[in-house]
Amino acid sequence: MAAEYGDEIDLESDDRKRGGRGAGGAGGKRGFSRRKICRFCADKQVQIDYKDPQTLKYFITDRGKIVPRRISGNCAKHQRKVSLGIKRARMIALMPFAVTGK
Ligand SMILES: [Zn+2]
Questions:
Q1: Per-residue pLDDT reduced to its tens digit, 5-33
Q2: What separation in Å is there between the alpha carbon of 2 and the centre of ligand 1?
């Protein structure tokens, strides 16, 4: 019985030190990562800011709802920050409360 044991543990994340912050907005379309890891834990440079809808919009659906944690893969701490940020961003009209169909 050769049971293949394929556990994907992602403890060892490659810490990119000296990451120059002169990235300059790399707007890639592939923001869809397969592995369930909190992108804010993985990339410490990404800040959750309610004034930054570019980051927050990854965590709402096309209807304007907040994506649940099991889908987004965020950890509890960061999901809280994301949802708080989205709610704040809604207040100052940076993000939609709901997107109704046409
Ligand atoms: Zn996290």
A1: 555 555 444 555 555 555 454 444 555 54
A2: 36
List the domains of the chain with CATH numbers: 33-102 (4.10.640.10)
pLDDT in tens, 47-83: 999 999 999 999 999 999 999 999 999 999 999 999 9
Q: In angstroms, what is the span from residue 101 Cα to ligand 1's centroid?
A: 32
Distance CA 21, CA 19 (A): 6
Determine the distance separating the centroid of ligand 1 and the alpha carbon of 97, expressed in angstroms. Answer: 24
